[in-house]
Amino acid sequence: MEDLKIDPWSTTDYSDYAHLREQFGIQEFKKEHWKSLPHPPLLFRRGIVFGQRDFYRVIQAIQNKKKWAMMTGLMPSGKMHLGHKMVIDQVMYYQSLGADIFIGVADIEAYATRGYTLPEAKKVALEEYIISYIALGLKPCNIYFQSQQKEVTDLGYILAKKANWSEVTSIYGFTGATNMAHVFAPLIQCGDILHVQMKKYGGPRPTLVPVGVDQDPHIRFTRDIAQSHRLYNVAVAKDGKPGIFVKGKKDSEKLLDKAQEAVQKKGYSIKRITKYNALYIQDKNIDMDAIDRALAKIEQEYGGYGFILPSSTYHRFMTGLTGEKMSSSKPQTAIFLTDTPQEAQKKMQSAKTGGATSLAEQKKYGGNPNKCVVYELFLYHLLPDDKQLTEIYEKCRNGEQRCGDCKTLAIEMITKFLEELEGKRKEAKDKLDEYIN
Ligand code: TRP
Ligand code: SF4
């Protein structure tokens, strides 16, 4: 496969997930990551969340009962479909684990990149997304609009000082014709992700950003920027020992003293070389995360932000019902959360399955659930029971399952889901004030 560039604003289908991981340094999201978590959701158990960066920080925070945040964004464009539901399923899971939840409505990004006005974006966000989130079971949390949250846009501007044109063009492919609002959109997204670590919003702490893999450029960019605003560098020296370095000249001796104190307080021994602004930790098996947090706190005392690099997870995209990419702008490819049961049934009737060309052939050779969007609906959403799912998979493979039966079952479940959701959406409308800042 040729080298690719992830473009968060394009409609490319990134389906070679292993390749993406290798090329961009995304780590695999493995069983060892989620098995220690309480009641792991189906998106974890079934490999739909496939990649991560620094997820260990989140696990540690949960295990050590420390504070952590989850931040994600909502693009208020088009209609909310089942593919979008995956993010909110994860949000609700992390909410149940006790994370501080922040959801930023990317109304400025929709304005800059999708041609919406801010009032249009607001309407879409409320009616299409937030009402459905509440109806799906999201509990009160911090939902805000980029355009209304001055601290976010201001932080984006401040952070921009350490990003330059060649960096953003190489990440995003901006050209001389790109409008400046678009150029600035990634910085506002940095503001979104990092503002939750400002004192007012809970201070430095692990922050998880669950997203689709198209958002990874923003994650890399944000992590780079967070790192360049730190006052300390933490790096492993040639001899394998971690070193702590004070980056700038301002307050450098004091910062070194403070770091030394913090590290020694944790029981580690240190070699200090003041003229290099460096401390080398001499021990093995060091809890770097605890040290990082301590350093972040010191940074805040000295006027820095002390950002802990945000962690992220990446989920796969659902295939559209027709076999092409699922898209808000192509209604036949997706079940919208505001579809009537009749509309959904119609779309389901013509959904692409992995069945053979005739019933006789299917009996003989079996179907292919891996190429079947009906099966994908079971896998991602409709069948939480792993045993029932496996049974359908095996029966399909050995020719005992008929596509018609799968569709009947899927339609039944979607109908019930949409009918219930409609009722809950009506109730949700009165609760909006509890959610929006
Ligand atoms: N760019 C995201 C999208 O297109 C939306 C977004 C804005 C976001 N701010 C964010 C996502 C912060 C995660 C975190 O969907
Ligand atoms: Fe898909 Fe079911 Fe047909 Fe198998 S039998 S291809 S799972 S619809």
Instruction: Give the biggest sheet.
Output: 7 strands, mixed
Ligands bound here? tryptophan, iron/sulfur cluster
* Strand percentage: 5-15%
Mean pLDDT: 94
Gross geometry:
globular
Structural class: alpha/beta
Q: What's the β-strand tally?
A: 11
Count of individual helical segments? 18
- One letter per element, helices H and strands E, the order comes to HEHHEHEHEHHEHHHEHEEHEEHEHHHHH
**N→C terminal distance:** 45 Å
Nearest-angstrom radius of gyration?
A: 24 Å
Low-confidence stretches: none
Largest sheet, spatial ordering of strands: 1-2-11-6-3-4-5
Helix coverage percent: 40-55%
Task: Explain what this protein looks like in three dimensions.
The chain has 437 residues and is α/β, with parallel strands linked by helices. Helix content is 47%, strand content 12%. A seven-stranded mixed β-sheet has the order 1-2-11-6-3-4-5, sandwiched between helices. A four-stranded antiparallel β-sheet has the order 7-8-10-9, covered by helices on one side. Strand 3 (69-74), helix 5 and strand 4 form a beta-alpha-beta unit. The longest helix has 26 residues, at 403-428. The model has no long low-confidence stretch (mean pLDDT 94). Bound molecules: tryptophan and iron/sulfur cluster. The site of iron/sulfur cluster has 14 residues, from helix 16, helix 17 and helix 18.
Q: What tags apply to this protein structure?
A:
alpha/beta; 18 helices; 11 strands; 12% strand; binds tryptophan; binds iron/sulfur cluster
Gist of the model:
The protein has 437 residues and is of the alpha/beta class. It has 18 helices and eleven strands.
